[in-house]
Design brief:
With about 625 residues, the protein is an alpha+beta fold. The protein is built from 18 helices and 28 strands. The strands form nine sheets. Strands 1, 2, 12, 13, 14, 15 and 28 form a seven-stranded mixed beta sheet that branches. The protein has a six-stranded antiparallel beta sheet with strand order 8-21-22-23-20-26, covered by helices on one side. A three-stranded antiparallel beta sheet has the order 18-24-25. Strand 1, helix 1 and strand 2 form a beta-alpha-beta unit. Helix 4 packs across helix 18. It binds flavin-adenine dinucleotide. Flavin-adenine dinucleotide binds next to helix 1, strand 13 and helix 18. Flavin-adenine dinucleotide (FAD) binds next to helix 1, strand 13 and helix 18.
Amino acid sequence: AATVTPSPAYDYVIIGGGTAGLTVADRLTEDPHVKVAVLEAGQNAENFQEVVIPGLIFTGQSIGGVLDWQYTTVPQANFNGRQLLIHAGKALGGSSVTNALIFHRAQKEQYDAWGSLNNDPSWNFNGLLPYFKKSEHVYKPNKYQSETGAILNLPFRGTKGPVQVGYGNFEYPQSNLWRTVAAKLGFVRGTDGTDGETNNVVVTTDSIDPRNNTRCSSACAHYTPFFKRPNFTVMTNVTVTRILWKDTAKGKDAVADGVEYIDLQGKVHTVSVNHEVIVSAGTLGSPKVLELSGVGNSTILKAAGVKTVVSLPSVGENLSDHVHSWANAFAVNVTYTADILAANPTFFNEQLEIWKRNRTGLLSNAPASLTLTSPTDVFTRQALSPLLSSAQSKLTFYANQFSNGNAALAKGIIAQHTASLKMWSSNTERLSEINFQPGYLGPTPQDQRPQGANFSTVNAAFDAPLSRGRVHITSSNVSVPPAVDPAYWSHPLDVAAHVKSVQLARKFLTTPPMNTIYGGEFEPGLDKKTDADVEAWLRSVAASDFHPMGSNVMLPKELGGVVDTQLRVYGTRNVRVVDASIFPLPISAHPQASVYAVAEKAADMIKKGVSNTEL
Ligand SMILES: Cc1cc2nc3c(=O)[nH]c(=O)nc-3n(C[C@H](O)[C@H](O)[C@H](O)COP(=O)(O)OP(=O)(O)OC[C@H]3O[C@@H](n4cnc5c(N)ncnc54)[C@H](O)[C@@H]3O)c2cc1C
């Protein structure tokens, strides 16, 4: 279609106003001479009740609706051919608007692997720490929060940044029981999960502004206080269709000079770009934008009807995701669980009034109690050693299988797996997250669960995938969703670690003092005892944890990278990717705090390097 509106020019155009995109936009527009436009497909949802009130995440109101892309995977061979739903926020603020608020960091060694895979120590834990701190304003816990487990690790935290971070104002008594059990099972008490050692029990902070107990998304942090800046343009309800390129001589890096987008009526518009295009459309959205723009594997592009501008076969490859599962028990002798919010409208309305009046009660709570497991928490030493030698001897086999005929990426996957196995061997890999949900969280719909029963759930999310899949376009039409294939459980270590983590989660349910509320196991169910039973059950119920990463991986070009350590897309002069898609190795943590740190670092690099990208 023809362009019908004049094309305004901006120094930087940011595609996707999500967690990373708005962070970069805010930082760049701190300089009043720099003109930035953000193009966001979703709407501004900052005053939606389901977004603002922390406890409403338990009733799932903001996922599955208009604020959600609702990506669906292709049939997953290792999960009985099931197609899994992957939620991702479609709003100004992206997934930080709809996520479960947990705000912590991963194990130090995992970030250190980011640095060593890229021969760049500025990407290791210590290099990223100033950006973690810069991104947040953390508040000390109040008396109630301290009494219910909050311990802030101030030397590792920031107190002047834009993302407001604190604790919820309500804690279920069951959560305290759970933390005691964890200590009994050998998990030492940590602080807030930000010092790089995550194999301990912590109450994490949440992206909650404790001054009024409301969610602080990247829109709250990086848009609402600054949108009046004359150099900061944000367009919502517009979907980017492609990057536009200057005619480029063959053999030269491609130069972007505009971005094309459509509005809600499907009308086509363009904006011009003076300096750079920054792609921040998320792990499943950013490869799509690049591919629609002609950057990617030319066979895939051709099949979708897109002309290749930059041949870069790793775009959309190397995708991984955390895998969700749980163990559920009937809870007895408890006053209430989180389920009452969905089950009892009168009670819900009372709680809503309490929250509105004084920002306390069940709706002021968000999940926070968790621990990350090490290999020796879930395996015996005897079981570990044959598993590791087998993985070591099959490095090339799996790298070839996961890299889709891309020889450079196969090398990159070998490098990643080598880094992961080194962490397995030194017991610093973090295999799974075990956390507690004072209510039901599982695969059985409410009307099929025993009526009137209360539940307690111990989650076992598998967090350290060696499996790698892909996400690619299948059409040149922007409204066709990409084919998402995280290839869950394609590596035998993933299967073994996940199954053992569920067995460990079951142990939490019955260990004193949790046994005082244990009324029998509901899921997996006592008939599923052995690892083989649990494995078969998981194949039929495991779900996405909504943490896709790595689909535009930051790695050297010879290891199949899509972006370099400045996050510049190889083969382009002035296009960067800034979001969770660049993670060089999956991290065992909820990703938002790390996405903010990556975006802060990116903004810093862009500001320092402006003169290099002048066209
Ligand atoms: C339900 C759920 C629960 C989660 N819980 C937690 C948690 O408790 N703690 C935690 O740390 N993490 C959690 N996460 C994950 C975390 O929120 C994400 O990893 C992180 O926010 C990703 O940031 P991003 O910048 O990469 O992408 P996003 O924040 O998703 O931003 C991408 C943006 O790009 C926009 N976009 C995409 N395509 C286009 C296009 N073509 N044109 C214009 N705009 C486009 C999207 O609408 C979106 O706004 C959760 C995620 C979900 C979905």
